[in-house]
Amino acid sequence: MITTDKETALQKRVLQLESAIQAIIQGEVDAVVSPTEISMLHFKKVIKEKEYQLEISQENLKSLFETLDDFLFVISQTGIILHVNPEVSKRLLLPQDTLLGKAFVELYPESVREFVWKKMYSMENQHKAVFEFPMQTLDGSQIPTETRLTQGIWNKENVIFAISRDISLRKQAEEQLLKAMNLANDLAKEAASANKAKSRFIANMSHELRTPLNSILGYAQILKRDQELSQKHQDAVHTIYSSGLHLLQMINDILDLSKIEVHRMQLTPSMFELRPFLSDLVNIILIRVHQKGLQFEYQPDLVLPKAIWADELRLRQIVLNLLGNAVKFTHQGSIIFRVQHIHTELEQKKTMVTLRFSVIDTGIGIPSDQFENIFSPFHQLVDHQNHAEGTGLGLSISRSLVKLMNSDLLVESSIDKGSRFWFDLTVEEGIISSNAKESAFITGYKGEKKHILVVDDTSENRSVLRDILTPLGFIIHEALNGKQAIEMFRRIPIDIVLMDMVMPEMDGFTAAQQIRQQSMTIPIIAISASIDGNIKDRAIKAGCNDYISKPIQVDLLVSCIGQMLALDWTYGRNELSQQKEHDTTEISAPPSDILKKLLHWVTLGDVKNISKEAEWMMTQETLKPFGHKLYQLARRFEINQIDAFVRQFLLTNK
Fold first, then answer.
1. How far apart are CA 382 and CA 364, in angstroms?
2. Each residue of 263-306: pLDDT tens digit?
3. What pLDDT does residue 436 have?
4. CB within 8 A of 505, min separation 6: which ones?
5. CB atoms within 10 A of CB 31
């Protein structure tokens, strides 16, 4: 190696400096070191420290390259591999010498090389790129990888760094997830298919059950209007009708569950008289109460609104479920049905009233840890005496309905002491006009005879409608399906059509559309037992003017026909309404001791004994009017009215 004189002189000075330092260390304090020599010594020390740090950095970088689990490539701008870490050779089964100088794209299958090259070529305009393709090994197998490209400098040249990560485990997880998702989708499809099958089954069963119910309830309503029936037979008909409504409620429980599951439950508010509504509920449940030998108390507040706006059917369903459960789980003691007037306020020119409905029993009670579970579908309390009763849906559906009414169903209970269920309902107070016709029933109408076309594929349904409407003076024509209805409509002067919507050959929707094309003014009332929540909207779109569901409510049907034909009804009075018009002075009262006994039963809410006493009085000629009046009040559980009725005669006797 050739050195200059200057370098030789510098080396001599360094040697001298080292000798001087050594002499100082050995105690030869007379050694002399010039400032220049000290500066050179510091410079050399700094150089050695930098060299050491550089060596450490190189070792760290080498260790990083050699221990990295990912594949690391240094690639030239032209796509040639300049450097790789050992993991590349190890996993791809290719010696490092073979890899260096090889085109990077050759590590990928031919089908994706063009795409990889485009990604590398685009690095001129962007700093990073990411793609997922498998790399090929020497034995022909493939390793799924995710590769990230980024720009950098290597040996003072612009290069591309590529870090490829083996994503085999991730791919396996993704495949398993995909399989799980496919399985879930398959199960969901099976569940959807099962739900459709369930819905079809429920719909078919609903139609099959509602058809005989339509006949039972229809003829019960017809018989209730028959003035030749004795009071005993009237009561029997009323029991048949009430029991039919109870059976209808049980069917609705099953149907309502499916509606709640798909959030299709809706309320249909209407105005109805409150006290007759409550009395009907009591009459329905009283049969089961007497069968079990229980005491029953009906406690309505003295001041209750005459009428309210609410969903009558749903409110009936809720209260009957609560009363039914009370009877079911009470084996001795009593049941109290209480209706309280909690609050009244004016809201936007409307009178809003808050009523509290409570059912209290002395039954088996409910454990406190079961308070929430009892509201779950199909949950039933353990009661060995009634293990097979009920569907387990009543409380679940009742709470859902109460929540739809912006309230909640609450419970408090103690084991072997009984339970109390209650809910508060805020509703608009209804206004009932005072009309003499309220105590009367429709017997016919004035004017020309009206022709009604009844379209239904079930003969029982046609018979019910025929027997309801014929006594009122209507001329009834019957068709078995939509096709026959259209033919009859063309040749008979029909005034109104009652159209069943679900029929073979031609359904009611198609028939209504074709009839509407022939006449824009003919009234068409859709009548159906279908549980399809959209059937009313579909019927209206098809051309129907209104919709009535089966089982048919006679008053609703007659009212609807009267409105559409603008009929002027004629009325008659029933026996009860005629008796209401008589002054009480015409009634002979029993002795004071019997009146006092009646008042004692009133304080106990003992309607059962009051009814028995009234039945005995009706067998006595002189007491028959008093007994009849008393029996009617007792049958409707009008406790307050009974109290007032009896007291006026007690005062007169005094």
1. 10
2. 556 777 888 889 888 988 887 787 778 778 888 888 888 788 99
3. 42
4. 481, 482, 483
5. 14
The structure tokens listed for 622 are: 């002189």
CA–CA dist 341, 427 (Å, integer): 11
Name the helix (H) or strand (E) containing 628.
helix 624-635
pLDDT tens profile 9-56: 666 766 766 676 666 666 665 555 555 555 665 666 667 777 777 677
Percent of the chain with pLDDT over 70: 79
Taking a C-beta distance cutoff of 8 angstroms, is the pair 525, 545 a contact? yes
Residue (of 561, 556, 403, 544) closest to 474 by Cα position: 561
Q: Which tokens is 21 given? A: 């330092």
- Establish how many alpha carbons lie within 13 A of residue 172's alpha carbon, considering only the half-sphere containing its beta carbon: 5
314/308 Cα distance (integer angstroms)? 14
What is Dmax (Cα atoms) for the chain?
A: 157
On the question of a cis peptide bond just before residue 551, with omega within 30 degrees of 0, the verdict is yes
Q: Which residues contact 484 (CB under 8 A, 6 or more apart)?
A: 455
Both tokens assigned to 204: 């078919």
Pairing of strands 451-455, 350-361: unpaired
Report which secondary-structure segment, H or E, holds 576.
helix 575-580
Residue 91 to residue 178: CA distance in whole angstroms: 28
**CA-wise closest residue to 135 among 160, 97, 165:** 165
DSSP state of 387: T
Phi, psi (deg, nearest 5) at residue 204: -65, -45
Show the tokens assigned to 294.
């229980």
Residues with Cβ within 8 Å of residue 266, at least 6 apart in sequence: 533
Report which DSSP code applies to 385.
Answer: G
Alpha-carbon distances of 333 from 202, 279, 330, 358, 621, rounded to whole Å: 38, 22, 7, 17, 37
Looking at residue 36, its pLDDT comes to: 57
**Residue with token string 């009085």:** 617
Tell me how far apart the alpha carbons of residues 223 and 469 are, in angstroms, rounded to a whole number: 13
Rounded CA-CA distance 239/220 in Å is 9
pLDDT digits (tens, 9 = 90+) for 448-483: 999 999 999 988 889 999 999 999 999 999 999 999
